[in-house]
């Protein structure tokens, strides 16, 4: 199921400067994660954003999980 969910995350340099978005719409994954972290429920988000589906929110969470599974983080010299 997770691979199907991740197919909802798209990249397009012409949409939101190439940030990962939901299904080619102008909803960056970052926005969904910010809404959830602010305390909004999935139902509240879906009520506010008619274009979104429950699976889009789950895909955003799965995307965040994948990003957190990096093996190493290196500091870039400033």
From TrEMBL:
SUPFAM superfamilies: Homeodomain-like. It comes from the Bacteria. Signal peptide: none annotated. InterPro entries: DUF433, Homeodomain-like_sf, WH-like_DNA-bd_sf. PANTHER family: SSL5025 PROTEIN, SSR2962 PROTEIN. This is DUF433 domain-containing protein.
């Amino acid at each position: 199921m997770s691979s199907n969910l991740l197919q909802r995350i798209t990249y397009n340099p012409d949409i939101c400067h190439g940030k990962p978005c939901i299904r080619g719409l102008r909803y960056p994954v970052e926005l969904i994660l910010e809404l959830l972290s602010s305390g909004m429920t999935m139902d509240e988000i879906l009520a506010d954003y008619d274009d979104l589906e429950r699976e889009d929110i789950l895909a955003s969470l799965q995307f965040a999980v994948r990003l957190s599974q990096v093996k190493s983080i290196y500091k870039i010299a400033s």
